[in-house]
Amino acid sequence: MTGPTTTFSALGLCDELLQSVAEKGYDTPSEIQIEAVPAILSERDVMAVAQTGTGKTASFVLPILHLIHNAKKTDSGLIRALIIAPTRELAAQVATSVEAYSKYTNLRSFAVFGGVRIESQLIELQKGLDILVATPGRLLDLYNNHSLSFDDIAFFVLDEADRMLELGFIDDIRHIQTLLPKQRQTLLFSATFSKEIKSLAQGMLKQPISLEIKNTNNNINTITQMLHPVEKERKTELLRYLIEQHKWHQLLIFIKTKRDADALRDTLGEAGISAESIHANRTQHARTKALEGFKQGTIQVLVATDIAARGIDINQLPCVINYNLPYVPEDYVHRIGRTGRASAEGLAITLFSEDEAKQLRAIERSTGRQFKRHFIPAFAPPKKVIEKKVEDDGDLYGHFEADINPKKKAKGRGRKRRGR
Ligand code: AMP
Fold first, then answer.
1. How many angstroms does the Cα of residue 49 sit away from the middle of ligand 1?
2. In a domain, 414, yes or no
3. Is residue 400 part of a domain?
4. Could you tell me the strand order of the sheet in which 346-352 lies?
5. Which residues have any ligand 1 atom within 6 Å of their CB?
6. Which of 147, 160, 230, 240 sits a CA distance of 20 to 30 A from 348?
7. Whose CA is nearest to atom 20 of ligand 1?
């Protein structure tokens, strides 16, 4: 995390929270934390533009915990804060953060989302809790069941609001808003600030403090981005070649459809490369297991669709691969933002077929950079298609071997990097 230096205790957080933050190993607050924590502690509404990877979750969770912890007089277990997230993964991840940060308080938190049995969630809700994290659909199901009361909610957070709108949750969100007490503090976090987000914020926030953390482009500029032109039908073959050639580990591969994700997982598996897929059709249990295996290193490759990958918390991945280019340039930025976080070096590789030229142009326009095409001779598309001279680019990945292949020693460190 970069940005101006201050300390967590200077932000005014209570000792119980400082202890858990120290235990997480955070030395200094990130830029969004420096901006958002005092704003939220001043009990104002906040509208913040900040991407995943900036430390945004702690920037709203910590001050909310502080305010609830200080105000709490009894162990009543009434829901004081409601945090809405667009996907199950994000909801689960935010809940994990809430739990970690509230470790030394007596506050209880829980996450509810679809894809798991509602009965087990009902049992947890009946025990009473202070902070509820939820996806919109499951939250409304529980509310309509009379399993929840919103009467004591003092904090309402919309996390990744832009993604909620993309996923069509606008009506659910507006509905939820009408069910909440009018006296409350509302926080809206979004990766982008579009017309739609502005209008959502206007109807929801009262004289908000606006914050914008503009470090995404700096982040992506620390990532080496490679583009390998290849015929569409040969992408899997090229991928296998790259993985086997370099013996890479911990690769996150983005792919367009759920079916393609499973097919790629199977093909890689048959080739002896341990792979798992995560997408919306997989059960929560299967997704969690895949993610755990990937984090622990028992699974070498995780194949994910954009929606499933959104919000999964994997820090400092050495490499991400785009099997296809996304239609929306912001998705490209989100994808590659998985690597090279917190100033660690990152590598993002795109397997590019000419039918994706339109998406590539959109990404180039949006990120303001031109991609150099790096041809792998055995996989270069026929010249008549690409109308370019194929040259051997040599050892493109030597510099990264130590990061992506855990068995290799750090070699090539300090050498000039290529492909920037
Ligand atoms: P987020 O943007 O909330 O998805 O957070 C991205 C990652 O940064 C998470 O893994 C956090 O645990 C981590 N993180 C949050 N705040 C800090 C901090 N101040 N210093 C170091 N890491 C942090």
1. 16
2. no
3. no
4. 223-229, 346-352, 319-322, 251-254, 301-304, 275-278
5. 1, 26, 29-30, 33, 52-58, 313, 315
6. 160
7. 26
For residue 30, which atom of ligand 1 is closest to its CA? 19
In a domain, 408, yes or no: no
Number of Cβ within a 10 Å radius of residue 378? 11
What range does the domain containing 54 cover?
9-212
Domains held by the chain: number: 2
Q: What are phi and psi of 233, to 5 degrees?
A: -70, -15
**198 shares a domain with 268:** no
- pTM summary value: 0.64
* Same domain as 364, residue 332: yes
Distance 15 CA to ligand 1 centre (A): 19
For every one of its 420 residues, what pLDDT tens digit does the chain have, with 9 covering 90 and above?
444 568 999 999 999 999 999 998 888 898 999 999 999 999 999 999 987 778 899 999 999 999 999 987 555 679 999 999 998 888 998 999 999 999 999 999 999 999 889 999 999 999 999 999 999 999 999 999 999 999 999 999 999 998 899 889 999 999 999 999 999 999 999 988 888 999 999 999 999 999 988 654 445 667 889 999 999 999 999 999 999 988 888 899 999 999 999 999 999 999 999 999 998 888 888 888 898 899 888 999 999 998 777 656 665 688 899 999 998 777 888 888 788 655 457 889 999 999 999 999 888 877 777 888 899 988 988 864 455 555 556 677 776 666 666 665 444 333 333 333
DSSP string, 24-83: HT--S--HHHHHHHHHHHTT--EEEE--TTSSHHHHHHHHHHHHHHHH--S------EEE
